[in-house]
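Long-time lurker, first post. I've been practising inverse folding by hand and with some scripts of my own, and I keep getting stuck on stretches where the structure tokens seem ambiguous. Below is the full token string for one chain I'm working on. Before anyone asks, I'm not after the true native sequence, just a reasonable design that respects the backbone. If someone could post their per-position residues I'd love to compare against what I wrote down in my notebook.
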């Protein structure tokens, strides 16, 4: 079959590959990627050239946008009018361009994303800065090429004096590649160009001393960190930008957060909608009203706050959940010699300087040729004026103009141009004044010719011309920096930054249900009150741990098998005072028959602090807290246990602490924590107390030693199962060696029940107790009498039938409230 194929045919794969490559190159070079020399894409270049041809300069009356668009698509850009108008509009938007290239009259859209008016309603003209893009274009400074229908010519690049690639930046998506160059400050760019002209060997680091970073038209903050260095050194990097947020005080102590500036390219209307949605979803709390008060003077988005709200938390939430903080990906891709190339800061400026060098040389050659041609004519006219009588005689005696021209050329050795100029000379040039003007013009031309030749022949003169242009550009058009550069890295927004470090209560039931509740939900009462409804548990469940802490602390959950799991307090789901909570198995990977035995909160893991472990069989172990700073998702081994033992409690200690082990049978032993030498995580530890019969350890109280000067904690609060408790002075517990049988701590009777726990207290503490019938009571420690060791204490809470105290903890004391009772559901 192949013998019948057309010998000129080619494979479809080869044809597709060739056609797609041609299409790709066309999109890259002819549409989406700017030229490194003038920083313009073809559509923008054609818009500016069309206006130049129409004489639509900054000092002329603006013309209808429709006329400009019509000229562009009719002469140079055979595409849709909407694409050209969109490009024209962007060149006139002060929130899109760092320095405007088009001055517009009418509605050109807004930062809210509002569409511009139709092109028949708006008017435009080139800005004064845009005029510098086209200066000297009529002096053969750039190459021209035929337009799409070969009827006109258009420039391949503009002879711009402005480093527009970096000044206004650009973004574009081509085939297989993209560009995203941020805008910069013109004054800084001019300083960078001057540096390269003075010291061509300057590095990117040197340039960054004067070019601090991008300068966005929408102001805001920018972190000049590693991402910016990468972008300037390699052409690719990521920078973090933020809007500007201020805090304003309102009447009666209220506050408002005001957003004054937003990141570049962000739609303000979308930002307001996003904030409103977050407020409604309660991801941002504490906001009572949201208003957009922006006007012609600038952006002003106001968030009114509730009284008592923490402004920093709301601000961090805005940065975390909205685009008020965002990243700008630098990708400095541009067309260099008809090929896409990734540029760094120095190469981008160097290519521009090379372009200016070429433009100045071509302009100078054009001006030199023109001046030399004029000087040649003036030399002929000088000869004619010096021999005017003879010239007149030759002309009078000639039969016609060609004969006179020929005789003049022979008589005075003139060129054809000089002879023709003499014949065209008006009689008024014969006056003395006109003669002097001609000589002055000739002398001026000779000076210019000498200057032009020096530019072409002397590199230092050429560089001087380039410097003068840069200085003129800076003095005429440079403006102050808008985006503020931050030398220190923007604080990363952790989840803790979005959550107030409020006091909370962590409640863990014996069946494994856990919740977090705001402490303010519990009111302080007098001793002996009936309490208010606490956690709602089932009939066969009760509260095991009840810990007052704050949202930002670490929550260490130790299981009965000696394993540790680590969470942050705020990671525990929040519930109401009577809520059941969520099961701990939803948060931790517990094994069968494994449960959380004790919970510990800690703010930081320091080198000098230790964890003291106590088991039900009276074993203790001391290990450095830093060994537990990092935890795996599956948890880690916290202590080694015998088969018949289990972990009951863990406490934070230091070298000066004493440990007080409390047993259910009413005994206690106090010893120095240093008696237990530090061991590794997996160690089993040593004996802390010798237990009597079936007695077991129920609590481990950590108290300061007598010689460390601490006076804050001087008493131990012991609570029994049936609601009795007492305060006992610490000095009544003598210091012993670990491993002994201990001394009496609490007089156990049928009325008191076994001891359930003990802890150190101060007189200004509050005490919160939880009962098995789901009641909570909060009383002041100073309401409880301080008595000796071998006593049964006083009644703390009135219990119902078969009721018992299942947990208690100390909290900061609050003003006494009226006794309140709320029945559990």
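-- Answer (accepted) --
I ran through it position by position. Result:
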């Amino acid at each position: 079959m192949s013998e019948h194929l057309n010998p000129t045919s080619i494979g479809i794969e080869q044809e597709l590959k060739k056609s797609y490559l041609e299409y790709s190159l066309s999109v890259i070079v002819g549409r989406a990627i700017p030229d490194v020399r003038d920083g313009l894409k073809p559509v923008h270049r054609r818009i500016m050239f069309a206006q130049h041809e129409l004489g639509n300069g900054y000092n002329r009356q603006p013309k209808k946008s429709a006329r400009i668009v019509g000229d562009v698509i009719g002469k140079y850009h055979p595409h849709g009018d909407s694409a050209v108008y969109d490009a024209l509009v962007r060149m006139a938007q002060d929130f899109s361009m760092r320095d405007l290239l088009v001055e517009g009259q009418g509605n050109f859209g807004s930062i809210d994303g509002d569409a511009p008016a139709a092109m028949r309603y708006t008017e435009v003209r080139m800005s004064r800065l845009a005029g510098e893009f086209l200066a000297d274009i009529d002096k053969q400074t750039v190459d021209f090429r035929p337009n799409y229908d070969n009827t006109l010519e258009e420039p391949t690049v503009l002879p711009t004096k402005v480093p527009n690639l970096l000044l206004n930046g650009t973004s574009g998506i081509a085939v297989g590649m993209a560009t995203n160059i941020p805008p910069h400050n013109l004054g800084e760019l001019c300083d960078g160009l001057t540096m390269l002209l003075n010291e061509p060997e300057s590095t990117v680091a040197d340039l960054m001393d004067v070019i601090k970073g991008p300068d966005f038209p929408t102001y805001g903050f920018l972190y000049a960190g590693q991402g910016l260095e990468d972008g300037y050194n390699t052409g690719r990097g990521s920078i973090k930008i933020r809007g500007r947020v201020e805090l304003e005080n309102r009447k009666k102590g209220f506050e408002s957060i005001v957003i004054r500036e937003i990141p570049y390219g962000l739609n303000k209307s979308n930002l307001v909608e996003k904030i409103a949605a977050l407020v409604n979803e309660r991801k941002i709390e504490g906001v009572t009203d949201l208003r957009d008060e922006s006007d012609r003077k600038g952006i002003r988005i106001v968030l009114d706050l509730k009284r008592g709200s923490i402004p920093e938390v709301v601000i961090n939430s805005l940065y975390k959940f909205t685009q008020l903080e965002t990243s700008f990906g630098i990708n400095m891709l541009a067309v260099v010699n008809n090929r896409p190339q990734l540029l760094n800061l120095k190469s981008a400026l160097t290519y521009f300087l090379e372009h200016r060098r070429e433009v100045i040389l071509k302009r100078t050659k054009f001006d030199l040729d023109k001046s030399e041609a004029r000087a040649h004519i003036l030399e002929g006219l000088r000869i004619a004026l010096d021999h005017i009588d003879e010239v007149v005689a030759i002309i009078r005696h000639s039969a016609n103009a060609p004969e006179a021209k020929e005789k003049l050329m022979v008589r005075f050795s003139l060129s054809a141009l000089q002879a023709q100029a003499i014949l065209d000379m008006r009689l008024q040039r014969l006056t003395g004044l006109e003669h002097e003007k001609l000589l002055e013009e000739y002398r001026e031309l000779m000076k210019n010719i000498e200057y032009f030749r020096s530019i072409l022949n002397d590199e230092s003169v050429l560089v001087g011309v380039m410097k003068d242009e840069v200085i003129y550009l800076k003095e005429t058009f440079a403006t102050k920096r808008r985006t503020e550069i931050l030398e220190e890295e923007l604080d990363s927004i952790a989840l803790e930054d979005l959550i107030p470090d409020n006091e909370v209560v962590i409640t863990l039931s014996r069946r494994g249900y856990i919740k977090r509740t705001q402490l303010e939900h519990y009111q302080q009462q007098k001793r002996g009150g009936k309490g208010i409804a606490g956690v709602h548990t089932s009939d066969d469940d009760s509260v095991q741990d009840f810990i007052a802490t704050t949202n930002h602390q670490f929550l260490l959950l130790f299981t009965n098998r000696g394993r540790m799991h680590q969470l942050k307090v705020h990671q525990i789901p929040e519930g109401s005072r009577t809520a059941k909570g969520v099961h701990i198995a939803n948060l931790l990977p517990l094994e069968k028959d494994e449960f959380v035995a004790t919970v510990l909160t800690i703010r930081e893991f320091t080198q000098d602090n230790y964890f003291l472990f106590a088991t039900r069989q009276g074993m203790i172990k001391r290990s450095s807290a830093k060994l537990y700073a990092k935890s795996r998702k599956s948890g880690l081994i916290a202590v080694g246990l015998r088969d018949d033992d289990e972990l009951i409690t863990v406490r934070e200690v230091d070298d000066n602490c004493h440990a007080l082990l409390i047993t259910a049978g009413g005994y206690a032993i106090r010893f120095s924590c240093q008696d237990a030498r530090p061991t590794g995580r997996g160690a089993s530890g040593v004996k802390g107390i010798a237990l009597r019969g079936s007695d077991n350890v129920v609590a481990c109280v950590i108290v300061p030693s007598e010689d460390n000067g601490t006076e804050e904690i001087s008493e131990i609060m012991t609570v029994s199962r049936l609601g009795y408790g007492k305060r006992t002075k610490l000095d009544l517990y003598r210091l012993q060696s670990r491993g002994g049988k201990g001394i009496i701590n609490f007089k156990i009777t049928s009325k008191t029940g076994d001891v359930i726990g003990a802890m150190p207290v101060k007189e200004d503490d509050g005490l919160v107790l939880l009962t098995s019938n789901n009641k909570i009571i909060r009383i002041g420690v100073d309401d409880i009498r301080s008595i000796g060791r071998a006593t049964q204490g006083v009644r703390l809470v009135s219990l119902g039938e078969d009721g018992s105290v299942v947990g208690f903890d100390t909290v900061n004391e609050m003003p006494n409230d009226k006794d309140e009772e709320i029945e559990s559901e």
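A couple of notes from the structure itself: The chain has 17 helices and 41 strands. The mean pLDDT is 86. Happy to go over any region you disagree with.
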